[in-house]
Amino acid sequence: MPPFQWPGYPTTEIEFEKLMAAVDKRLAAENLKPNQRPLHVGRMFWQAFAWGGRMTPPKELADLDGYEGDVLMAKALRWYAETLGDRLKSYFELGYVPAQLANTIWRVRISNWFGSVNFFAHRNLLNKGQGQKVGSTLPTLNVLTLVEQLPQGLVDRLSNEEITDHFNYHMFAVYAIQWLTNLPALKLFGVARDDYSCSTNDLIAHRYSQSRWATQQCVEKLLKGFLQMSGTKYPTGGRDGHDLIKLAKILQDTQDVVINSQLLGFAQCSTGVRYQDEKSTETQAFQANVAALSIFDALRQSSRATEILRAPIVSDAGSA
Prior knowledge:
4 strands; two-stranded antiparallel ribbon; Four Helix Bundle (Hemerythrin (Met), subunit A)
């Protein structure tokens, strides 16, 4: 895109509002998410009128007169806070997984972090943990606070065993999603990540058929990605091209990568599910989604699969 242009610094509130509307429109056109846009305002101001100032000036400067320097940026950041509100929040998540607590399936955020962190589970949801390292003490994170919309009343009624089970499941999901996120930049792997996200979102939205189909597609593309990276030919169409058991067998026979057939069976579904010719239940959709997580984890722990991921990407062994 060409540099952002504007006649000059605003001199009135009306001119400032017009400037900010244009800046936000431009940043949206660059496909920047709402929480990313305030970080790029300075770039827009520089392109428009060679603005110079701090990217994060004191908030109180927004109350001063004028529209230049740090005052302009302070007003711009306040404008974003007022117009986008909670959409500015960024949790730096790796992804989301479904989890069952009591008789309900909840969406759970899998957080990203830098360095080491100690996870724990505590009944008090106000105890989120210590977000920063203090001395030699590592940051801590209460995994129960990552369950979206989880009420304190339910947590109070959970048994110690249920809380322990959820903690173990959360840690299992953390390693699986982290592995999925860090796969090489292969198109099939990227689409598999998107399919898994759709599986989780559709499950939470009670679209069970769509969730099962997305899971099936996720695992299919994951298997084909490994076959492609290992330079192994595989069926790309017809029934065999979508049969998880057969694709996994090719991977096992040629590359000695073994995946539990029961997990593959849980993740597999027919086109009848996709078009809702076959009824799908919440249990089936949840079981399929967790089976995909287990497949991620199995591949994560496979030494041969790790070797394949370290090899140069082969682009002509087959296509989805």
